[in-house]
Amino acid sequence: MVWPTNRVLEAYRKGLEQLLNNQNLKLGRWALFICSFADASIFPAPVLTIFILLVLLNYRRAGNYVALATLGTFSGALAGYFLGYATSVNLNFGSAGFLQFLNNHVSGLSEDGFHRIQLLYSKWNVWILFMASFSPIPYGLFSISSGIFKMSLPIYCLVTLICQATKFWFLAIVTKKIVTSVLLTFLDSEAEELTGSSPH
Q1: Rg (the chain; Cα; Å)
Q2: Does the N terminus or the C terminus of the chain have fewer Cβ atoms within 10 A?
Q3: Mean pLDDT by 10 residues, the chain (200 residues)
């Protein structure tokens, strides 16, 4: 994983402001897919922020946003898996050179971090992906780790797809409920004001 610089974070902020101010939903869909791919592979990105904003701006298309975010995350997770697998094979898994490469190029996978994650994988195996899907930690850290530790690819794909789809559907449903609740509260207050101000 490559952690973003201040310049990149500023670009994220400006992009989100543009999305919110102009309601450019077509651009937002591309941003959602690209950020989902990046966050699940090599680069932390504000996937949930963009997803929630899009659902708030047009919650009737929430299903499309769920599909885009799930597809982007799944594609990025595959890229991260193969990156980790190739790194493990080419650099002799567990060797000093391998650990040095992780320390220099993969944030969160220093030598100590590598051994901690190795223990987690040996203890929890595929269940760690369930936990990772609903944690704030970028999924790319786990996609790369899954490739490094050579988790079964079919199982990895199945669990990733199910967990990510479930996460985004849950967020979409919660966001839609919040929007509905706010709208109903607003309409009730408007109705009360009209009733109160009407002549008797």
Answers
A1: 21
A2: C
A3: 51 57 66 90 84 83 92 95 81 59 59 73 83 84 86 93 94 82 61 53
The answer for residues whose C-beta is within 8 angstroms of residue 87's C-beta and 6 or more apart is: 98, 101, 102, 144, 147, 148
Question: At 79, which amino acid appears?
Answer: A
Dihedral in degrees, nearest 10, Cα atoms 116, 99, 156, 81 = 140
- Predicted local distance difference test score (pLDDT) of residue 79: 94
The per-residue pLDDT for 10 is 59
Residue type for position 116? R
- Residue 52 amino acid letter: I
Which structure tokens are listed for 109?
């996978």
Which of 77, 83, 102, 88 is closest to 155 using CA atoms? Answer: 77
Q: Taking a C-beta distance cutoff of 8 angstroms, is the pair 133, 156 a contact?
A: no
Q: Are 68 and 36 in contact (CB under 8 A)?
A: yes
Choose among 159, 109, 104: nearest CA to 138.
Answer: 109
What's the pLDDT score for residue 2? 46
68: Cβ contacts below 8 Å, ≥ 6 apart: 29, 32, 33, 36
